[in-house]
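testing teh design pipeline on a random one, pls ignore if ur not involved
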C-alpha cells in the first residue's frame, strides 16, 4: 500500500519493482528498478527536522527488502540502501543510515545512525549503532558494534559469505519477475 505522509509526499516506485500488497510505503520513499519489497515490510518517511524538511528513504536498484523489515528515520534524516543489497526478514534500519552496495543485513538485525560500507555482511540479530563500518567487513551474529568498537578486531567478509549474499540478491531478483507476472492474480 502506498500512502501519502502528512507533508504531502507520496512514494515513487519504479514500474519494474515489486511491492507486496501487504507492505506499506509511506511518504518520501524512492524505490528504484527491479526491487523486491516483501510481505509486511514498512518503509516510512514522515518525520521532519527542525526546519520542517526531510530527506528521502531510497532503495537502490536490484535490492530486496524482505518480510517484516522496518525502515524509518528520525527527524527527517536520510536512509539510503545501495544497489544489489539484501535486508533480511524483520531487520530494522533506522536513519539516519546508509547501507552500501552489495551488502547483506541479516534477520532481526538493527542498524541505527550508521554507515554500512559496500560488500559488508551483518549477520542475524546483530546491532550496528552509531558507527561507520568500512567496506568488506563481517559482523558475526548477535554482536553489537558501536562507536567504541575496535573495527580492526572484526573479520573481513569471506568468499563464502560473499557468495551467500550474492545468491540471496539473485534469488530475490528472480522473485521480482515471478511476482510481477502474478500481480494481477491477487
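output:
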Amino acid at each position: 500500500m502506498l500512502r501519502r505522509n502528512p507533508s504531502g509526499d507520496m512514494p515513487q516506485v519504479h514500474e519494474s519493482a515489486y511491492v507486496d500488497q501487504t507492505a506499506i510505503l509511506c511518504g518520501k520513499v524512492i524505490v528504484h528498478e527491479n526491487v523486491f519489497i516483501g510481505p509486511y515490510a514498512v518503509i516510512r518517511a514522515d518525520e521532519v527536522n527542525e526546519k520542517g524538511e526531510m530527506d528521502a528513504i531510497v532503495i537502490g536498484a536490484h535490492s530486496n527488502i524482505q518480510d517484516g523489515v522496518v525502515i524509518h528515520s528520525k527527524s527527517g534524516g536520510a536512509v539510503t540502501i545501495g544497489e544489489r543489497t539484501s535486508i533480511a526478514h524483520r531487520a530494522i534500519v533506522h536513519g539516519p543510515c546508509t547501507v552500501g552496495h552489495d551488502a547483506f543485513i541479516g534477520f532481526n538485525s538493527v542498524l541505527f545512525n550508521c554507515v554500512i560500507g559496500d560488500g559488508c555482511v551483518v549477520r542475524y540479530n546483530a546491532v550496528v549503532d552509531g558507527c561507520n563500518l568500512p567496506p568488506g567487513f563481517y559482523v558475526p551474529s548477535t554482536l553489537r558494534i558501536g562507536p567504541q568498537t575496535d573495527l580492526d578486531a572484526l573479520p573481513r567478509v569471506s568468499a563464502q559469505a560473499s557468495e551467500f549474499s550474492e545468491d540471496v540478491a539473485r534469488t530475490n531478483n528472480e522473485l521480482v519477475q515471478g511476482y510481477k507476472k502474478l500481480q494481477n492474480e491477487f
